[in-house]
Amino acid sequence: MNQDTSAREAAAALATAAAAAGYAPSVHNTQPWRWRVVADRLELFADRSRQLTATDAPGQLLLMSCGAALDHARVALAAEGWTVETERLPDRAQPDLLARLRPTGRTPVTAEAVRLAQTMRIRHTDRRPVSDQPLPADVLRVIEKAVTAEVRVQILSSDQVLELAAAASRAAAVEAAEPQIREELEYWTGRARPLGSGLPAAVLPEREQQTTVPGRDFGRSGTLPIGSGHDRAAVYAVLYGDEDDPRGWLRAGEALSAGWLRATELGVSVVPLSGVIEVASTRQALRALLANLGHPYLVLRLGITDPEHSGPPHTPRLPAEQVVDAPGV
Predict the structure, then answer these.
(1) Which CATH number fits domain 137-304: 3.40.50.2300, 3.40.109.10, 3.30.230.30, 3.40.980.10?
(2) What are the pLDDT digits (tens) for 109-137?
(3) Which of 149, 276, 161 is nearest to 211 (CA)?
(4) How far apart, in whole angstroms, are the C-alpha atoms of residue 313 and residue 120?
(5) Of 78-87, 89-98, 204-213, where does mean pLDDT reach its minimum?
(6) Where is this region: Disordered (predicted)?
(7) Beta strand pairing call for 82-88 and 97-106
């Protein structure tokens, strides 16, 4: 194979991986990323037009969302037999250029790599209460191990879950009192939401759920049926790390992706709870649960899906041509 042919194959693989990264989770399904294939590399940019300027003024959840897409792109490339190097925040003059991926060679495709790539397409958020079936300890260990070394997971004790519940309630009250946040939520869950993004009624619970830790109040009822279950068997965890800067939040998204894909592969439901992170005072309370040893990025609810009702549909996705710039590919 000549060099030109190899370069064309790499560029095509990068464009395909960028499109596949669109399956990544993002806050309110905003999908706030844009990709560009340039010569021998794939560049990831933040799309500020999709930032939640009221809920996420610092852009931390945007960065986490983009980090999840970055990890998804690597998973897609691995499933096609490509090894890559990742360069994060490579240019200070371009703060919205979040990462570059460069192919470094070919490698045999493993069954595990293919499974993870397939898992990207079935991963989704199921906000229904989980079943009463407890999570096996060995399953939790596998999910924890999937998270990268730079970002860690703290499983909360029953007492800490009660403190989390109090903090989540306070955060919900604070955000409910902010008209701009309510308007933003209305936009991303209503009929005016951008085509191919946001949260349709079919993925939102039909009524308030009776759970220890309250989920987000979307300000409207959805059509997702829920049973009479509770979250007694749910496990609550905190993603946290040492850095409270753009690089740290980007890596948090990568860790979220890696852990969530592994959880999905094992049949474990994952629900991200960011409300307590979005309010400064409750995020500080969450940090106290970590004994101030790290910065919390996100709360996760883990559990076995309740089989009483069928799960929600997948949230819509933007077409690849809107988020991937791949001239000549």
Answers:
(1) 3.40.109.10
(2) 999 999 999 999 999 999 988 888 999 99
(3) 161
(4) 14
(5) 204-213
(6) 308-329
(7) antiparallel
What's the CA gap between 100 and 78, in Å, rounded?
Answer: 16
- Report domain extents, the chain: 3-123, 137-304
DSSP 287-322: HHHTTTSSEEEEEEEEEEBPTTSPPPPPPP---HHH
Per DSSP, the three-state class of 317 is coil
Q: Which residues pair with 273 in a beta bridge?
A: 299
* Closest listed residue to residue 153, CA positions, set 267, 302, 25: 302
137-304 matches 3-123 in CATH topology: yes
Q: What would the pLDDT profile of 31-80 be if each residue is shown by its tens digit?
A: 999 999 998 899 999 999 999 999 999 999 999 999 999 999 999 999 99
CA distance 73 to 69: 6
The reply to whether CATH 3.40.640.10 applies to domain 3-123 is no
The closest of 208, 190, 201 to 224, measured between CA atoms, is 201
Sheet of 268-273, strand order:
151-155, 235-241, 295-304, 268-273
Alpha carbons 201 and 92: distance in angstroms, whole number: 40
pLDDT digits (tens, 9 = 90+) for 242-295: 999 999 999 999 999 999 999 999 999 999 999 999 999 999 999 999 998 899
At residue 110, the 3 state secondary structure works out as coil
Angle between helix axes 158-176 and 179-189 (nearest 10 degrees) is: 100
d(CA 218, CA 239): 23
